[in-house]
Design brief:
- The protein is built from 14 helices and twelve strands.
- By secondary structure, it is of the alpha+beta class.
- It has two domains: 168 residues, no CATH class; 161 residues, no CATH class.
- The strands form two sheets. The chain has a six-stranded mixed beta barrel with strand order 3-4-9-6-8-7. A two-stranded antiparallel sheet has the order 2-10.
- Strand 3 and strand 4 form a beta hairpin.
- The longest helix has 33 residues.
- The chain is elongated and about 90 Å long.
- The chain starts with a helix and ends with a helix.
Length: 370
C-alpha cells in the first residue's frame, strides 16, 4: 500500500507540485516565524555571549541587563580579583540610552570600556578601531548606514557629541544595538565616579566558572555572580516574558493559518484520487488497505512539503543578512521537532475525512463514469 501511495503521489507531476508546494508554503510560514523569534533572542544576548567573560558580576539581585540597572562600588573589583580562581576582572559601565544621529534616535546599550580593555569589547569590526578613546564612539555599522554616518562623523550619546572611530558588526537587533565609549567619558557624563555596572570575570585555567561564581557570591558582599551561560539565559527569559503574549498570539495565528492550508491541501489531494480508490475497491481492495494508502499518501506529502519548506526557510536565513537588515533568522532543533511532529499529526487528521468518504464509496460509480 505504501508503494501504491508513492506511485499515486508521483503519477501527476502538476498535482504533486501543488500538493507539496501548498504544504511547504504553510510550513514556511510556521518555521520562519519561529526562526525570527529565535534569531531575536540570540541577537539580544550577542554582547553577553561574545564578551569573553566566564562570569558576570552585578549588583545584588540584578540578574540581567535588559531594562535593569546595576551599580557597585569600584572596590568590588578589587575584592573579586582576590577570590581564588579569578584570573581577571574587567569593569564596565552600562545603561540603555539613545544614539542620536541627525533626526534619528536609535535605542542602544551604551557600554563604557576602560582603556586597553580585553573583554566586553566589540568582537567584530567592519572598519575603524575596536577600542574607543576619549571623545570617540564605536557604533553598529547597520545603524551607521541607515543614518548616513561614516567614520569620522559625529553622533550624540548621553547628550554629548562623539566622533565615530569604529563600526561594529553583529551588535544590532530588532530591539536595539550596542554602542561603546570610554569609561572616562561615561563617568564624566553620568557622574558615576568610583562606581561600576558589571564586572566581566575570567577564571584560571582548569577552574570551573560555576564553582568560582559560587566563591564570589560567598566571599564578596552585595553582588550577584553568574556564569556567562546563566546570565544570557536570564536575559533571554526577561525579554521573552515581556513579549510572551505578542509572541504567543503571532505564533498561534501563523500556526493556525499554516495548518489550515496544510490540512486543506492534504484533503483536496486525497479527494482528487477518489476515482482511483473506487476502482481499487471495485477490484476487491479492502477498506483497511485504502485507509493505509490514504494515510501513507498524506504523510508522504507532508514529509516532502516539510523538507521543501525547511530548505526555503534556510535560504531565508542566508538571504536576509545580505540586505543589511538587523533581522536574523535562526532555525532551532526545538522548532523543527515541534513543527515536524505536529505536521504529521495534522496529516493523519487531514486524511480522516476523505477516508470516511472512501469507506462509503460505491464501487459501481467507477463503471457508471461518475
Amino acid at each position: 500500500m505504501i508503494r501504491l501511495a508513492f506511485r499515486n503521489l508521483f503519477q501527476n507531476k502538476v498535482r504533486l507540485t501543488i500538493s507539496v508546494g501548498g504544504v511547504a508554503l504553510a510550513l514556511l510560514l510556521i518555521l520562519s516565524l519561529d526562526a525570527i523569534f529565535t534569531g531575536v533572542e540570540r541577537q539580544i544576548t550577542a554582547y553577553i555571549e561574545h564578551s569573553g567573560a566566564d562570569i558576570w558580576v552585578s549588583q545584588a539581585d540584578v540578574f540581567n541587563m535588559h531594562m535593569a540597572s546595576s551599580s557597585m562600588p569600584d572596590s568590588a573589583a578589587r575584592k573579586v580579583k582576590l577570590v581564588p580562581g579569578v584570573a581577571s576582572a574587567t569593569p564596565i559601565l552600562y545603561l540603555t540610552n539613545n544614539v542620536v544621529i541627525g533626526d534619528e534616535r536609535n535605542l542602544a546599550y551604551i557600554i563604557g570600556l576602560p582603556e586597553n580593555a580585553e573583554f566586553g569589547i566589540p568582537w567584530s569590526i567592519s572598519s575603524g578601531r575596536s577600542l574607543p578613546g576619549k571623545g570617540e564612539a564605536i557604533i553598529n555599522h547597520t545603524v551607521a548606514e541607515k543614518s548616513g554616518v561614516t567614520l569620522g562623523g559625529e553622533v550624540e550619546i548621553l547628550g554629548e557629541d562623539f566622533e565615530v572611530t569604529g563600526l561594529s558588526e553583529g551588535t544590532a537587533s530588532l530591539v536595539n544595538s550596542v554602542a561603546f565609549i570610554s569609561i572616562d567619558d561615561f563617568e564624566e557624563l553620568r557622574g558615576s565616579y568610583k562606581t561600576i555596572s558589571f564586572l566581566l570575570v575570567t577564571v584560571d585555567e582548569g577552574e570551573s566558572p560555576q564553582v568560582v561564581a559560587a566563591r564570589i557570591q560567598a566571599q564578596v558582599r552585595d553582588v550577584t555572580a553568574q556564569t556567562r551561560t546563566d546570565f544570557a539565559a536570564q536575559e533571554r527569559r526577561v525579554v521573552k516574558d515581556m513579549s510572551t503574549d505578542l509572541i504567543a498570539i503571532m505564533n498561534l495565528i501563523g500556526f493556525l493559518i499554516g495548518l489550515a492550508v496544510m490540512a486543506l491541501t492534504v484533503y483536496t489531494s486525497t479527494l482528487s484520487r477518489r476515482r482511483e480508490y473506487g476502482m481499487l475497491k471495485a477490484l476487491g481492495a479492502h477498506n483497511a488497505d485504502l485507509y493505509r494508502t490514504v494515510l501513507a499518501q498524506a504523510i508522504l506529502s507532508v514529509i516532502l512539503g516539510f523538507l521543501f519548506g525547511l530548505v526555503l526557510t534556510l535560504m531565508l536565513t542566508r538571504v536576509t543578512p545580505i540586505f543589511g537588515a538587523s533581522l536574523r533568522l535562526e532555525v532551532s532543533r526545538i522548532s523543527l521537532l515541534k513543527v515536524g511532529s505536529v505536521s504529521l499529526v495534522i496529516a493523519a487528521l487531514s486524511s480522516m475525512i476523505p477516508i470516511g468518504q472512501i469507506a462509503g464509496l460505491d464501487p459501481a460509480m467507477v463503471f457508471r463514469g461518475r
